[in-house]
Amino acid sequence: MRAPFEGRLMNTVCIDSRYIADRPSGIGEVVQGLIDFVPALAPDTHFVLLRNPRRRTPLCTADNVTEIIVPQAANGPSTMWWLPQAVDLSRIDLFHAPANIMPARLAMPCVTTIHDVMWLTNPAWCRSGTRGLIDRAFYSHGIRRALKSAAAITTVSAASAAEIARISPSAAARTFITPSGVSARFRPTPGSYERLASLGLPPSRRYVLTVGQYAPYKNHEGAIRAFALACADMPDIDLILVQRMGRRAQALLVLANELGLQGRVRLLQGVAMDDLIALYCNAQALLHPSFCEGFGNPLVEAMACGCPVVTSDVSAMPEVTGGAALTASPYDPSALGIQLRRTLTDARLADTMRQRGFARAARLNWQQFAAGHLEVYRRVLANA
Questions:
Q1: Measured between alpha carbons, how far is 274 from 47 in angstroms, rounded to an integer?
Q2: Longest CA–CA separation in the chain, Å
């Protein structure tokens, strides 16, 4: 690792990498994809990575990278209002805030990645209750600062870029689309039944998979309703939900019981990456009926593993799946159920979806994502 700021002949770019911690995170996966490739693409640039103390190992071992451990939360008040007081940024030429909010009091240009604008357009989809009201004020403030003041905005889909332009026309010219990628770890993996058994999944049971945190916009209730309509007469198939479960996630099991699915809906949390890959590889389908997504990492992860995808026909999901998935309205469980049943009962269709999914996933990679961000960095630095 090079000495920090040695020589000061390089431009110095700081990337806030604190979302990479001890549990899976969509934003964490995006940041990891960026820092895995951008230092090698820009050997003439020095990168400073802000690191979460819960991350015990280096984020990157490239010679042009320095890491600084910052204990304050990536999405907390210190980051929002006092980050320059929490960490010395005096020698930074450009700051990249990759998690929707733009910190205040930055002396250098800032690139902010806005994954979606749900906190502005549909805050009830993000989180409900008192905590939801607090988060709405917090994220709305940080996003609006980025829309107004960021030197550049990157976003992960054309759908999100269109929403940004609709909300803030003045931000449209500063917005650049850098589609997310998928790690090479996500690929067909034979012989993974032992991992499934360790999760309590017997090989005699087929299953449909739903992956994502338990938040209203993920529409997990809709997934259960669609599954019930599609599979009521298919008792050998279950629905597995992999999620970071909130306190009210058990309500999903109550709904499942009301729909006659006793014992056929399972909730898994804290799933290791290798276990998640095994789940994708052996699932009959991924059911992903979100109301909105900035991108939707599980869509591409599933396709890369050869798992057919049934998803929503709104927001970024048709764009991300690129014709490889079956789609339906997330507001219509019956329509979703019809598409899911087609996938489960038509082997030729399912195989076609797998092959198209492989092809689509192959076109989305983190190196291109990093190269897109590097182009934005250079544009901003040239205009600074």
A1: 30
A2: 70
165: its two tokens: 């332009």
Backbone angles phi, psi at 349, to 5 degrees: -60, -45
d(CA 11, CA 3): 14
| Beta strands, E only, 80-134 | 94-97, 110-113
DSSP for residue 2 = P
Same domain, 93 and 143: yes
Question: Using an 8 Å Cβ cutoff, are 284 and 208 in contact?
Answer: yes
pLDDT tens digits for 226-238?
999 999 999 999 9
Please tell me the distance from the alpha carbon of residue 372 to that of residue 201, in angstroms, as a whole number: 40
Q: Give the chain's domain count.
A: 2
Residues 215 and 326 in one domain: yes
Question: Both tokens of residue 345?
Answer: 């009962």
Co-location of 199 and 176 in the same domain: no
User: Which helix (H) or strand (E) covers residue 377, if one does?
Assistant: helix 366-383
Q: Exposure of 350 by Cβ count < 10 A (0-12 exposed, 13-18 middle, 19+ buried)?
A: middle
Q: How far apart are CA 99 and CA 122, in angstroms?
A: 18
CA distances from 192 to 189, 229, 381 (A): 7, 29, 47
**Same structural domain, 134 and 210:** no
Domain hosting 252: range is 193-362
237-292, pLDDT tens digit by residue?
999 999 765 566 788 999 999 999 999 999 998 788 899 999 999 999 999 999 99
Tell me the pLDDT band of 129, cut-offs 50, 70 and 90.
confident
Q: Beta strand 206-211 with 237-242: parallel, antiparallel or unpaired? A: parallel
